[in-house]
């Protein structure tokens, strides 16, 4: 996605890679994996991480891509794959409507194979 991910607020999603979560001095770093691609994420938010945030969980991170290639998240959401049905397909159709009233526009390109959704 190049420089656009550094200038726009985006949401990335994937599975939390096993043994990648590191807590150190108020900073949490971990890897998101999707389709054999990995993205390093750093979270230094003031909100605690969700209880469902753990190895293998599906997670979403809102923030910006740093010039170092690390995604700097301001918000983390996680869900346990065993408790929830698969996510909705994109784009919405009449048989598969958009699940949220919040407007989301998918990026035409992904960064390192990780799904990016621009949040407006």
Concise summary:
By secondary structure, the protein is mainly beta. The protein has one helix at residues 4-7, and strands spanning 10-16, 22-24, 27-34, 37-43, 58-65, 71-79, 104-106, 115-119.
Describe the protein.
It is a single chain. With 120 residues, the protein is mainly beta. It is 3% helix and 42% strand. The protein has 1 helix and 8 strands; from the N terminus they run αββββββββ. The longest helix has 4 residues. The chain is globular, with a radius of gyration of 14 Å. The protein starts with a helix and ends with a strand. About 12% of the residues have low confidence.
Task: Enumerate how many helices there are, as a single number.
Answer: 1
Strand content: 35-45%
State Rg: 14 Å
- How far the N terminus sits from the C terminus, by CA atoms, comes to 17 Å
Number of strands: 8
Major beta sheet, specifics?
A: 5 strands, mixed, barrel
Helix fraction bin: under 10%
Structural class of the secondary elements?
Answer: mainly beta
Principal-axes geometry comes out as: globular
* Model regions low in confidence, pLDDT < 50 over at least 5 residues: 100-113
Provide the spatial order of strands within the biggest beta sheet.
Answer: 1-3-4-6-5
What's the overall average pLDDT, rounded?
75
H and E order:
HEEEEEEEE
Helix/strand layout:
Elements: H1 4-7, E1 10-16, E2 22-24, E3 27-34, E4 37-43, E5 58-65, E6 71-79, E7 104-106, E8 115-119
Parallel strand pairs: 4-6
Antiparallel strand pairs: 1-3, 1-5, 1-8, 2-3, 3-4, 5-6, 7-8
């Amino acid at each position: 996605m190049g420089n656009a991910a550094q200038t726009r607020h985006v949401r990335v999603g994937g599975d939390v890679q096993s043994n990648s979560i590191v807590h150190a001095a108020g900073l949490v770093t971990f890897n998101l994996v999707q389709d054999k691609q990995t993205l390093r994420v750093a979270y230094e938010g003031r909100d605690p991480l969700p209880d469902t945030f753990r190895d293998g969980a599906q997670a979403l991170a809102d923030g910006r891509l740093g010039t170092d290639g690390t995604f700097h998240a301001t918000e983390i959401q996680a869900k346990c794959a065993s408790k929830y049905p698969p996510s909705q397909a994109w784009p919405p159709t009449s048989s598969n409507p958009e699940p949220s009233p919040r407007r989301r526009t998918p990026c035409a390109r992904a960064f390192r194979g990780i799904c990016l959704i621009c949040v407006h």
